[in-house]
Specification:
- The chain has 2 domains: about 100 residues, no CATH class; about 140 residues, no CATH class.
- The chain has 2 helices and 19 strands.
- Strands 15-16-8-7-14-17 form a 6-stranded antiparallel β-sheet, with no helix packed on it.
- Helix 1 packs antiparallel against helix 2.
- The chain is elongated, with a radius of gyration of 27 Å.
Length: about 260
Amino acid sequence: MQALHTAATGMAAQELNVQVISNNIANLRTTGFKKQTVAFQDLIYDHQRRVGAQSSDQGTILPVGIDIGGGVKTVGTPRSMTQGTLSQTGNDLDLSITGEGFFKVLMPDGTFQYTRDGTFQMDNQGRIVTAQGNPVQPTITIPQNASGITVNAQGQVSVTLPGSTTSNIIGQLQVTRFINKAGLQPVGNNQFTDTPSSGPPQDGVANQDGLGSITQGSLEQANVDVVSEMSELIAAQRAYEMNAKVISAADQMLQSTTALFR
């Protein structure tokens, strides 16, 4: 019976939906996390009577047809790149971006990855690095014994050197944007890689040419709305239960049909 297969596709789709929702909720407190949703499409139809077909020798046209759907499929888990709220930390190397753009990170293999997580530190060479120790680009080294680290909205990094009372600019952080930022590939550690879908990276200066501004001493929180996620979770659970009911009903119908031949 086709209803068994159709309902099974619905259960599989809602199972994936719950997995995505659970990942969103799990990353509720993950810095710079961007939530995902699930996009569904109906499967190919069995056209038992095609609409518009000729129904008689006199040229009568069918006003409606008989189309039996095959169920549902998942076509994507698009990521929402909306802005998350900023949380003040007071740490000099905690940076956030308000608006378009990502921080650019140099990986050990020479490739680049991109992140909205500005939880930066200094390594043993004084370089500004991510939590994994990868240098933020362009590489900026804080001089030894420097104090008063400041980062302005354009990403200029300034410090006060020993024996000086004025700040000195020692580097300029870049911000990178993409034509289709939803096309970035997540790779874990709050980082993304570019893909043919995202388009090539476009480096620029923060707070200029439509790029976002940098705020020192704050971090961008996940853009997950827990109330919305819980509502979606309940809806997914109910949809799963309804598809299970269809399988149960189809099974009972098959049992009744089998009983006729006993």
